[in-house]
């Protein structure tokens, strides 16, 4: 909840002035072509902003400046303790602009204002502050060599790093990428999703205000298919960090191979298993099962979309999840009481509806929701939906829907639960619910995912790494491990008499 009321946020939305220009070399500029693209508020379908539609020529200019700045060493050569202070000041400025950023994110993505105020903005502040504070505590190494020589192992920034991010958590994902990339001394080109560029642009202004030298950071809104591809194939970019879908992630690795073998780190899709044993705290598990799939309208890479429930509690557990789902009825995202807002756009809402039809055709049993609602708002809202009687071979159990659709799959033995959980091309996240620590640990260890909750869903914070196994990706955001994605290891071998 926020202290402001719906009326307060509506007034703030009416008053807000949005600058959709690109951010190049420390200042806001139009795309070189002068072209703009209209973005829309998913809650109303109304036009929200005119945003610079950057093209390859803009990327070339940004890369040229980023390279020059990197080589001059204005940022990369700055002592870590000073880079730290810039990031800490940046975090403070973001905190001071928290309401403005939360509102921008809600208008852009359709996320409930209670989430953007309480989760997206504060977690982004913490990411930048924590990462900034960490950077002057990282030591290099000396290897255990023979006498009269010394092997120095040092970390160096990659150089010019590109970050391409999606629309579902624009601010948090941007913070996950920018904080370690900048902390380690790189110059960065960020391409936000075409739908949702506003908070990334705004925090770039604040980075300059915090003392980030001009030329280090550039934010280029523009289409994935042309601008994104140009960035991914650019010979002047040394590293590419990406969060988005698995098909695009695969393509980026191809682009890297076709260009300069830039380092590519990927955070991709998921179809995460949430396993419930009969000895679990059933009420807590049912409430968390709803949160796991309906938070952010299911537009979450780690969403717990496969609920794998022991057959002995299957029917009663589903009843409890249906009850919990009623607390996720869609509403106006500017209302502080709303738990779930609209889908990000009509295309995403249509995709969800298509998967509901697929589930029905496959023979799964629709036990809650299943329809679009609130059409009179002009927005794209979908009910929280539950399918029972799902088997793991169905498309609704294998494919990432990216909407509020839960597939409930029964199991009889522990090994069967693990086999179902692992029978997926994805390996991003999951959870297991059991009061028996042996069962919980055994299962958690065997499920092949990057983050596993025991008796919780969506656990974790900036202190732990985040990323996927299998086709969910290969990089790690957050924690000190994130520094690995933005640095090269260099050996300097010294011999002396
Ligand atoms: P997407 O279609 O893959 O787009 C992600 C970004 O890539 C956008 O900025 C997009 O630009 C750009 N892009 C698209 N095609 C490109 C190309 N050929 N070359 C270079 N860039 C290209 O994903 P999305 O629909 O925005 O996001 C949802 C996906 O992200 C889901 O699969 C979700 O699971 C995943 N995700 C993963 C994580 C994680 O940490 N593992 C976190 C959040 C989301 P445009 O916007 O212009 O298309």
TrEMBL record:
<dbReference type="InterPro" id="IPR016162">
    <property type="entry name" value="Ald_DH_N"/>
</dbReference>
<dbReference type="Pfam" id="PF00171">
    <property type="entry name" value="Aldedh"/>
</dbReference>
<dbReference type="InterPro" id="IPR016161">
    <property type="entry name" value="Ald_DH/histidinol_DH"/>
</dbReference>
<dbReference type="InterPro" id="IPR016160">
    <property type="entry name" value="Ald_DH_CS_CYS"/>
</dbReference>
<dbReference type="GO" id="GO:0004030">
    <property type="term" value="F:aldehyde dehydrogenase [NAD(P)+] activity"/>
</dbReference>
<comment type="similarity">
    <text>Belongs to the aldehyde dehydrogenase family.</text>
</comment>
<dbReference type="InterPro" id="IPR015590">
    <property type="entry name" value="Aldehyde_DH_dom"/>
</dbReference>
<feature type="domain" description="Aldehyde dehydrogenase">
    <location>
        <begin position="32"/>
        <end position="491"/>
    </location>
</feature>
<keyword id="KW-0560">Oxidoreductase</keyword>
<feature type="active site">
    <location>
        <position position="267"/>
    </location>
</feature>
<dbReference type="InterPro" id="IPR016163">
    <property type="entry name" value="Ald_DH_C"/>
</dbReference>
<dbReference type="InterPro" id="IPR029510">
    <property type="entry name" value="Ald_DH_CS_GLU"/>
</dbReference>
<protein>
    <submittedName>
        <fullName>Aldehyde dehydrogenase</fullName>
    </submittedName>
</protein>
